[in-house]
User: What shape does this take?
Amino acid sequence: MEFKKVQKECVRNMIRYGKEFDICIDKDYALLKLYEEVGEFTQSILIHRKKSRPEKFLPEEESKKEVAKELADVVGFALLNAELLDIDLVKALEEKGWFNGDGSL
Assistant: This one.
C-alpha cells in the first residue's frame, strides 16, 4: 500500500473515531494524543526491557506485541498531525534524507 494511502486511511479512521465518541479531532487533540502515545510507547519499551516494576513484566512475545501496538499509535498520530498541518510526509522524509523513493511502502 502506498504511504499516502496509509495516511489517508489512518486519518479517515480517526475522523470516524471522533464522530463515534464526540471528540473534536483538531490540531490540539492530535498533538496532545501524539505526546500521550509516545509516553505509552516508552512505558511499553521499559516493560519489554524489564526496566519497570516486576509485576508489570510480560512474556517476551506479549511485551513485543505491546511495543508494536504502541508504536503503531505513535505513527498513526504522527500521520494525523501531518494531515492536519498539511504536510507531505513523503516529501519531508525525502528532504530529510530518510530515503529516496516513490513513496511506496
